[in-house]
């Protein structure tokens, strides 16, 4: 595997002609990058309209398929569920930057695996976090009584609202009025289900607990039937992440290493579609709260996270 550049001032980190990875992109810039990729790499990248947010913003994805071969094993990467975790959508965009713009470095992976990358599931909350409240976590649905937003990682349908969320519309962990009541999670549900036939790996990129987690989020003791495989690959990914910059990463069951919570995206995928591999990758931390990574540290974490992703992608290419 080639070395990914991590020094933030290097010209080599420029993505295409117009955007760089030295600053956090707006939702509009993310869409511009998607447009640029599909324009410049038409035999590899295709734009997918996933859905529309509460406030009418597009939720978009990039399908990466060498020569548009449809029946390869599929990896779905989901990012930007929680508004304040800006490093998450940037990680997804950097993954696209690597596997599309530097496709020639990843022939074994692209010959054997297709990808569907959703860089920003929660564009409304992301933009509100950027413009108004840096700590904002939720979407921007109107809940009444001056309360806004749903914690999208508590709104997916598997065992919805059984543990770890809140029915208080003002709470940061508000689960919504029903499973998939948020248009953002409903759009992701439809995307996942429509691509379930070839789905082998689902990866949710979040920040910033420095963990590689596998289902289930709702329980410390309930595991998928192939937990040994999940554990072994999670350990390998954690070792890869730690080898980059010396940060400590932990791997294990999501409900064991974090407070138990139902309604997560990984629980929905593992509990209903049941592909072989389902993970959350919690990125490296920085700043005052962990998720508010300074732009000066961003390139390092983007490269680190991408190495973790590529470890998963290579496993799929060689084993699925």
TrEMBL record:
InterPro entries hit by this protein: Peptidase_M14
Catalytic site: 282
Gene3D superfamilies per record: Zn peptidases
Domain of life: Eukaryota
A biological-process GO annotation: proteolysis
GO CC aspect terms: extracellular space
Cofactor requirement: Zn(2+)
Signal peptide: 1-16
One Pfam assignment: Peptidase_M14
Keyword annotations from UniProtKB, A to Z: Carboxypeptidase, Hydrolase, Metal-binding, Metalloprotease, Protease, Signal, Zinc
GO molecular function, one term: metallocarboxypeptidase activity
Stored PROSITE patterns: PEPTIDASE_M14
Family according to the record: Belongs to the peptidase M14 family.
Protein name: Peptidase M14 domain-containing protein
């Amino acid at each position: 595997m080639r070395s990914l550049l991590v020094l933030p001032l290097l010209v080599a980190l420029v993505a295409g002609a117009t955007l760089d990875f030295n600053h956090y992109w707006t939702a509009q810039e993310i869409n511009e990058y998607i447009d640029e990729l599909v324009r410049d790499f038409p035999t590899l990248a295709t734009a997918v309209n996933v859905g529309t947010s509460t406030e009418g913003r597009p939720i978009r994805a990039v399908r990466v398929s060498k020569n548009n071969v449809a029946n390869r094993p599929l990896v779905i990467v989901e990012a930007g569920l929680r508004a304040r975790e800006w490093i998450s959508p940037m990680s997804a965009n950097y993954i696209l930057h690597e596997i599309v713009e530097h496709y020639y470095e990843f022939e074994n992976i692209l010959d054997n695996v297709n990808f569907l990358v959703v860089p920003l599931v929660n564009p409304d909350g992301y933009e509100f976090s950027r413009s108004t409240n840096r700590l904002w976590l939720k979407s921007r649905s109107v809940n009444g009584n001056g309360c806004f937003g749903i914690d999208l990682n508590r709104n997916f349908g598997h065992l919805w609202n059984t543990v770890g969320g809140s029915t208080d519309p003002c709470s940061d962990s508000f689960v919504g009025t029903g499973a998939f009541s948020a248009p953002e999670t409903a759009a992701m549900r439809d995307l996942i289900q429509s691509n379930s036939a070839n789905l082998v790996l689902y990866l949710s990129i979040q920040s910033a607990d420095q963990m590689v987690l596998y289902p289930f989020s709702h329980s410390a003791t309930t595991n998928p039937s192939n937990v040994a495989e999940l554990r072994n690959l999670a350990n390998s990914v954690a070792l890869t992440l730690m080898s980059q910059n010396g940060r400590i990463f932990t791997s294990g069951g999501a409900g064991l290493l974090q407070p138990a919570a139902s309604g997560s995206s990984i629980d929905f995928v593992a509990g209903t579609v049941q592909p072989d591999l389902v993970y959350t990758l919690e990125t490296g931390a920085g700043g005052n709260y962990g998720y508010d990574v300074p732009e000066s540290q961003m390139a390092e974490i983007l490269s680190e996270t991408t190495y973790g992703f590529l470890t998963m992608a290579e496993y799929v290419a060689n084993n699925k």
